[in-house]
């Protein structure tokens, strides 16, 4: 047997570690050692250069396998967790480190080998996508450098090119001037998909209550000490604490993360490109490494900018790239409406994954538009001229699911009077969208896993093996990690589907999109209902914003249709909200004794603060606030930011 990858086992129980070693050797793998702690593992990694690491989470010396994850990612070494603990909080902590798999002790040899196959598949996909992104970014930077445009036109194209690879809500480019104590800088704010506003920095300073000349010396000194890197959430808050301009800017634009690269230009000037995001989890070591590999192209482009510093004060109009045919975003994202930062992040993910062959798992509450997103991914993919077949797993009786997916032979079961092709056969060469995948029975999950791994299946009642080439997009409103922990969803299938997750925000998390969505539905439904309604009154918009939308966009569309049906004239003035939400906006509700009843938001803030206090501010991990509240840490962090709960509070024993 040909020797496969070299594997390091990090496991503090010798018997378990040795059993793993024997399984791997029997399967043809090389095992370079068994480490009992994180420090021992690092020493073995430096010495033996493994290609994979099997990683226990809780080690006897008190160290955590999760602490090794960042180190392994820096070295581009794939890792799989092995743990006897599968409660939801442990799965959340593990997921945050982005492993390639998770095995639950005790497991069979077959389970281990399947998980390694899945991990290899995901790792190869990630490497391929990263390489494609890097090559495309190099090409697009070079196109700007070599293009015969005016410098102002080149500058206008920078945000669009960089956004494709490094998402941002605010972009700042600073170059120390040719003369001492001078600074040339550019600021761009993202306002939509492929849309950017060039901000005048003097005017921006004034809007922040600052005088540019007053803070200039401090900013130049800071730039001269810049080494680059990425900061998220608490680290970002700590970094801006003693920086006047960054602190004011971050509060003004609600920024929570930063990624920066510093380059020295041929003339000796220092240039810094800083990306800022409202999402605290946007930036990673991989993105910082990618930027580092782009350093030469970035340096050439910034050198062109620096050579004509008068161009920095030129009027710049942000626009789409012109080195390729313009793309109509109305067609590209047909039916998808939104400009909020959290939703633009979703569009960025779609753009990134569409051209790849990877499986996609769309997560989100009911009514958030998962099928629209699946159609958009297919429409932008190389498979767009082939079928997109949709299967609603929740709508099929359990006894018919396999027949629906894989087809059946004549006489396979009572009522099977003819041979029938299944959905996978119909989707050959194209895409299959498995909606509500969390409803699939465990027996059918086994067959689906085989199709994903082997790209083959047999019809129900048949023996002929049918080969297919199908991209799988799955969606669910369930927490699949919880389903895995409770034994209702196969762990290996979860990791096979979860190659590229896309998380859709609820409508209450993107309320700034409500006016856009409302106008979209007015335009769409007015035509459908033969009404001449063109505008929405301020009071109607206020009512729409005040409602929590448990049914998300689907519910909003139904509410808008009812409201338009009840409207006379050309302006929509009244929103027909559900009875539970019919309390007029701005009304104060009191109890029988006259005391004001707190709003749900006030009660939520109070409850989260109380739990945080009991945990002494700890959010993640065992005994953290997220575990006590039954929420994923990412969701709790999002709520803390959304509700304006300050992270600098103090807790007393």
**Shape call:** globular
CATH-scheme architecture of the largest domain: 3-Layer(aba) Sandwich
The fraction of residues assigned to DSSP E strands is 15-25%
Distance between the termini: 61 Å
Count every helix, treating DSSP H or I runs of 4 or more residues as helices: 26
CATH class of the largest domain: Alpha Beta
Q: What's the number of domains?
A: 5
Largest sheet report = 6 strands, antiparallel
Radius of gyration: 27 Å
In the CATH hierarchy, the third-tier topology of the largest domain is known as Rossmann fold
Share of helix, binned: 40-55%
Number of strands: 20
Strand order of the biggest β-sheet: 8-7-6-11-10-9
Low-confidence stretches: 310-329, 581-596, 648-653
Average pLDDT works out at 83
CATH superfamily (homologous) name of the largest domain: P-loop containing nucleotide triphosphate hydrolases
Structural class: alpha/beta
InterPro entries: AAA+_ATPase (IPR003593), AAA_lid_NorR (IPR058031), CheY-like_superfamily (IPR011006), Homeodomain-like_sf (IPR009057), HTH_Fis (IPR002197), P-loop_NTPase (IPR027417), Sig_transdc_resp-reg_receiver (IPR001789), Sigma_54_int (IPR002078)
Modified residues (4-aspartylphosphate): 56
Keywords: Activator, ATP-binding, DNA-binding, Nucleotide-binding, Phosphoprotein, Transcription, Transcription regulation
Organism: Chitinophaga pinensis (strain ATCC 43595 / DSM 2588 / LMG 13176 / NBRC 15968 / NCIMB 11800 / UQM 2034)
